[in-house]
Design brief:
The complex is a heterodimer of chains A (410) and B (272). Chain A is an alpha+beta fold and 410 residues long. Chain A has helices at residues 2-18, 20-58, 74-82, 85-89, 94-101, 139-143, 166-173, 218-224, 243-257, 274-312, 314-322, 327-363, 372-398, 402-407; strands at residues 62-67, 106-120, 126-135, 147-150, 161-164, 182-185, 188-196, 213-217, 232-237, 264-268. Chain A has two domains: 2-52 and 284-407, no CATH class; 92-262, no CATH class. The longest helix of chain A is centred in the N-terminal third of the chain and has 39 residues, at 20-58. The radius of gyration of chain A is 31 Å and the shape is elongated. In chain B, strands 6-7-8-3-9-10 form a six-stranded mixed sheet. In chain B, strands 2-1-4-5 form a four-stranded antiparallel sheet, with helices on one face. In chain B, α4 packs across α5 (128-140) and α6 packs parallel to α7 (187-202). The two termini of chain B are 26 Å apart. The chains are: A alpha+beta (410), B alpha/beta (272).
């Protein structure tokens, strides 16, 4: 079998070499399809590695509590992103934050009540839909953020105070030094006491663009907005080793405090980025399917060329059969030829895809992402295309009658 | 004892056709290329089949060569019934037992001569090096060794046909079937090709050849005239007992074995 394979491989190689241009163009069809799949997978891979690097940057001592049950099914992930139900459903309260604070091994707890509201600066500049984050002084500790100027929020402040993201400061005041200025939110004036240093990572586990957010104390926000909803509670633990125990203790005490209501999830480590990660894999899957269409076109190209080749070589098939080739031998020979075309096309596509993703990464913040999965998928897909589209021409060649084939001159 | 074995080899029947018929078309359109055809071929015969166009010569050759199957009747190759075997088995037997020589040479145009000659060995499971060595030996027998890496179109018709004969005998088949091997050649090349066929016949090969040229019958040991799918006349010019004895091909393995045997015998004698 191995011997026959080698013999057929040699035969196929020489016959493909004879028609270099034709073989190259056929490979090109496959390689464009493969390149687009590689490009999509590599970009998606780099985005999701960017998200998970967020968590590792913050540290492995982070626990996040989110409302609603585990976001593992496609439906829940999609509905979370496409509707505002998460803002309405949340059953987390400021009371829960105090409950968690009392648990051992918890170093810092901060709620995250995100809403979109219009902000008004001192002069009549307004931002109609700014991200308003209701949180507490612990937020900056948990996130490892630094301030460009001023101080972060204080719970015991006498007047309502606020901290502002650097980009939003620019938009509202035209300056990066707005400390002491006032902003009006829902009729309440907030004095700005600090500006966050620029972070420049729009994709993070909080789903907040920190540079464009407006931070106030959740308690202060609660006074002016009765419908305040907490979407997330971030917790930093002291001892990373017992993070699992702490997570389950948090779950237990929250369940007890809410008298049995378990409509929330406690997430730690990789689980925190899970929703974003699975959404990305859904999107990349769908995009790859679309790219797969071009692979089908490439496959049809292979089939077309192989059919031409079979017709051209009818006489040769007749000779081979007359001197002892079985139909299986002939089928194998042509199938291997198609496979070589598709695998070479696949390799070309892999190179082309990575070249394109490197070029794309020059103008985007992503890094090209290479993994053995992408290589395996590419190789598998190109072999599959070669098999599927090479089979019909190979069968056609194998079924040729030797007597008629010997009389056939192309 | 060896002589006796050799003699039994001569009289061995390698092909036996009984009541063979081949029909083309059905019902009113049916026509018979072969009708109740009987034939027995002994090892070492050189049979020339003659007859007008459309008398069924080529059909007979295709059936004997296992490229076609008869509609009815039976065909025994080496006492094995082969008329109703699978196409796969047919192909295997073609690779092992049958060598074809065609009127239009049928060499694959884009393969060098040596690879064309080695082609039958591809399907009987030889490694590339072994294939090329055997092909080279075969070409050497026809004084074509210097043309090994020529492409077919670079050779004359006679040379191409000699390469085709080299291909036909490369796997040492039981029968060589030739369909008008001189039909596309000038008279000088025809003589060379016929001389080569005569030579391989004298080495004990069985040849069945179809021809239109009555002048070539002098090479044959048996001349069959066909008419309308049946034998018209069948003349043997050489007695069965005078047919050439196949030269036993000793492979290195066999030689080694026989040497071992004689060595053992002499040892036993020494002990006694």
């Amino acid at each position: 079998m191995a011997l026959l394979f080698r013999t057929h491989y040699e035969l196929a190689k020489s016959s493909l070499k004879r028609n270099r241009t034709r073989s190259f163009l056929t490979c090109l069809g496959i390689s464009i399809g493969v390149a687009s799949i590689v490009l999509i997978l590599s970009l998606m891979g780099s985005i999701s590695s960017l998200v998970s690097s967020q968590v590792s940057k913050i540290g492995s001592n982070l626990i996040v509590v989110r409302p609603s049950s585990t976001l593992s099914t496609v439906d829940s992930i999609v509905s979370e992103l496409t509707t505002s139900t998460q803002y309405l459903k949340s059953n987390l309260t400021l009371k829960d934050v105090t409950t968690i604070k009392k648990i051992d091994n918890v170093a810092a707890v901060s709620p995250l009540a995100v809403s979109v509201n219009s902000l008004k600066g001192e002069t009549d500049t307004t931002v109609p839909s700014a991200t308003v984050v209701g949180t507490n002084p612990d937020f900056i500790k948990i996130q490892n953020l630094s301030l460009k100027n001023g101080t972060f929020l204080r719970e015991d402040a006498e007047t309502p105070t606020a901290v502002i993201g650097s980009k939003l400061a620019g938009t509202l005041f035209g300056t990066a030094e707005p400390i002491g200025k006032a902003i009006t939110l829902l009729g309440q004036r907030f004095i700005i006491i600090g500006v966050l240093a620029e972070v420049d990572d729009p994709i993070n586990f909080n789903n907040i663009d920190l540079d464009n957010a407006f931070f106030v104390c959740a308690s202060a926000l609660n006074k002016i907005d009765n419908s305040l909803q907490i979407q997330q509670i971030n917790i930093r633990v002291e001892n990373t080793g017992s993070i699992d125990d702490t997570a389950s203790t948090i779950h237990e005490s929250l369940t007890a405090a809410k008298s049995g209501d378990t409509n929330f999830t406690v997430l730690k480590g990789d689980e925190i980025t899970h929703p974003a990660g699975s959404l990305l894999s859904i999107v990349s899957g769908i995009l790859s399917l679309v790219a797969g269409i071009s692979l089908i076109v490439g496959g049809i190209g292979i089939m077309n060329i192989m059919l031409v080749s079979v017709t051209e070589r009818t006489h040769e098939i007749g000779i081979r059969k007359a001197i002892g080739a079985t139909s299986g031998n002939i089928r194998f020979q042509f199938l291997i030829e198609a496979l070589i075309l598709s695998v070479i096309g696949g390799l070309m596509g892999l190179l082309l895809g990575y070249l394109l993703s490197f070029l794309l990464c020059l103008i985007t913040p992503f890094n090209p992402f290479i993994s053995w999965q992408i290589l395996a998928i590419t190789f598998g897909v190109s072999v599959l295309v070669g098999l599927i589209f090479g089979l019909y021409p190979a069968m056609k060649a194998a079924h040729k009658n030797p007597i008629y084939s010997l009389k056939f001159w192309a | 004892m060896n002589e006796e074995q050799g003699k039994s080899n001569i009289n061995e029947t390698i092909i036996k056709l009984e009541g063979l018929s081949k029909r083309f078309g059905y019902g009113d359109a049916a026509s018979f290329a072969l009708k109740n055809f009987d034939l027995e071929v002994k090892r070492g015969e050189f049979i020339m089949i003659m007859g007008p166009s459309g008398c069924g010569k080529t059909t007979l050759l295709n059936i004997i060569g296992l490229l076609d199957t008869a509609t009815s009747g039976s065909y025994f190759l080496n006492d094995e019934p082969v008329n109703r075997i699978s196409p796969r088995r047919q192909a295997r037997l073609r690779a092992k037992k049958i060598g074809f020589i065609f009127q239009n040479f049928n060499l694959i145009p884009n393969l060098p001569i040596i690879e064309n000659v080695a082609l039958p060995l591809v399907y009987s499971g030889y490694h590339k090096t072994r294939r090329l060595i055997k092909a080279s030996e075969s070409l050497d027998r026809f004084n074509m060794k210097d043309k090994e890496y020529y492409l077919p179109f670079q050779l004359s018709g006679g040379q191409q046909q000699r390469a085709a004969i080299a291909r036909a005998i490369v796997s040492h088949p039981e029968i060589i079937l030739a369909d008008e091997p001189t039909g596309n050649l000038d008279s000088k090349s025809s003589i060379t090709v016929m001389d080569e066929l005569k030579r391989i016949h004298s080495e004990g090969n069985t040849i069945i050849m179809v021809t239109h040229n009555p002048a070539l019958t002098s090479y044959a040991t048996r001349v069959i005239n066909m008419l309308d799918g049946a034998i018209d006349t069948d003349i043997k010019t050489v007695k069965d007992s005078d047919l050439p004895v196949p030269i036993e091909r000793k492979t290195p393995k066999k030689i080694f074995k026989s040497r071992k045997k004689t060595a053992k015998k002499s040892k036993k004698k020494g002990k006694k």
